[in-house]
Amino acid sequence: MNNLSMLTDLYEFSMANGYRQTINDEQGVFDIFFRKVPDNGSFVITAGLEQAINSLQNFHFDQSDVDYLRSLNLFQDNFLNDLLDFKFDCQVSAIPEGTPVFPREPLLTIRGPLLQTQLFETLLLNILNHQSLIATKARRITYSAGDRPVMEFGARRAQGPDSATYGARAAVIGGCTSTSNVLAAEKFGIPSAGTMAHAWVESFPDELTSFEKWAQVYPDNAALLVDTYDVLKSGVPNAIKVFKELKAAGHQPVGIRIDSGDISQLSKAARKMLDDAGLPEVKITASNALDEHVVASLLHEGAPLDNFGIGEKLITSASSPVLSGVYKLAAVIKDGQTIPKIKVSASREKLTLPGLKQVYRLYYPGTQNAFADVIALADESLDQPITVVKANPLATQREQRIEKFDAVPLQVQALDGPKLQTTLPGVFDIQKYSQQMLTQIPAATKRLINPDEFPVYVTTKLAALQESLVEDAAENE
């Protein structure tokens, strides 16, 4: 990954410079978490950790960067000299990519010199917010598709090359099987997929000739786009002629793609025509601005579709295009003492959770069936039974006693300085892990509409610490 040290907001540099001049001996602990789930879902699929780690390991400033910062006439020389000598000196722990995570849970925690940790805010949020957003959208779409493969087709509608490429990676984490983006396919080992565009069909004197020429060039990859002129009057009949010729020559036709019109009705009629022609093995792919709700509707109507190619609604998460992850100071460390910190605002909903923490997933004893998450202070043990409090400060009936459970910590060490402390699995290994984790949470939390809430609690010790800091802030107003 390219050096992204300058991908930040100006105030990060201003604050870091200020720390250098005032409290340069203190360390900061920052958490990344979110409060709201896109599309009114109940969880987010976390993604982007590998790119976040790579960007931190490669974080440095060139002379040209420092010269530019010097030209702003905002920063002291000692700070600028520190940037030239920058060496990553932080510890990072994170929840592994592909894990379903819930509001207020710290999916990444970074600890280190305040000057350094402050500079990473925008960069880390940019990476994790984007990939987690797309992975979450892909999970919704592939959930709707069931066992039918979903191909990621969105590169041309993504907001720039990086969004297209890393979005394709995230889409696979969320369940997609392939991508039309050749750069992403090459970079991440994803199968590449695609057929033809309407321009191919239009470039020949007639549709049949265009199909014949395609089959001549690609006899074992004959997937034909049948909606350039008329799906049922010309597209499918011409495809049938070419497919029969291919079979007679010993080749196996792949399928047809419908990219416009009433896909439900057209696919039903096309399926009958293909079956009547002795081509039941030919697949039907649907594309054209699909999302999870359109896919669910098509399948509910009985559309005989075998694959989906989904572009703009996936790669931009068009119906809910922002994951509002935040980067908040949870503690400062001075002279070896950890001092918890909290953000207090007019709305209790925006209260942050102070201190160094760990997230635990609770399972019914001896099973892989999760029933709740608990956020605890890092030095706590989860003794049984345990009394916990709803993490959402607006919840009613917040206190709960839990008698028996198996607790599994979710955050793992990722970086100690630049040294990697965890494995970085391939994208399909992450997908497999994600699908396994999804089987462990209740089915009701995975619904697309009105999903059930998965309980997230904090320990009474953490809740008491939060409340005491709120009271301290009120007294100091």
TrEMBL record:
Domain Nicotinate phosphoribosyltransferase C-terminal: start-end pairs: 357-465
Alphabetized UniProt keyword annotations: Glycosyltransferase, Ligase, Phosphoprotein, Pyridine nucleotide biosynthesis, Transferase
Nicotinate phosphoribosyltransferase N-terminal domain sequence ranges: 6-129
PTM summary: Transiently phosphorylated on a His residue during the reaction cycle. Phosphorylation strongly increases the affinity for substrates and increases the rate of nicotinate D-ribonucleotide production. Dephosphorylation regenerates the low-affinity form of the enzyme, leading to product release.
EC number: 6.3.4.21
InterPro entries: Aldolase_TIM (IPR013785), N/Namide_PRibTrfase (IPR041525), NAPRTase_C (IPR041619), NAPRTase_N (IPR040727), Nic_PRibTrfase-Fam (IPR007229), Nic_PRibTrfase_pncB (IPR006405), Nicotinate_pribotase-like_C (IPR036068)
Catalysed conversion reaction: 5-phospho-alpha-D-ribose 1-diphosphate + nicotinate + ATP + H2O = nicotinate beta-D-ribonucleotide + ADP + phosphate + diphosphate
Pathway(s) of this molecule: Cofactor biosynthesis; NAD(+) biosynthesis; nicotinate D-ribonucleotide from nicotinate: step 1/1
One GO molecular-function entry: nicotinamide phosphoribosyltransferase activity
GO cellular-component term (any): cytosol
Physiological role: Catalyzes the first step in the biosynthesis of NAD from nicotinic acid, the ATP-dependent synthesis of beta-nicotinate D-ribonucleotide from nicotinate and 5-phospho-D-ribose 1-phosphate.
NCBIfam families noted in UniProt: NAPRTase_put, PRK09243.1-2, PRK12484.1
Family of the protein in this entry: Belongs to the NAPRTase family.
Record-given protein name: Nicotinate phosphoribosyltransferase
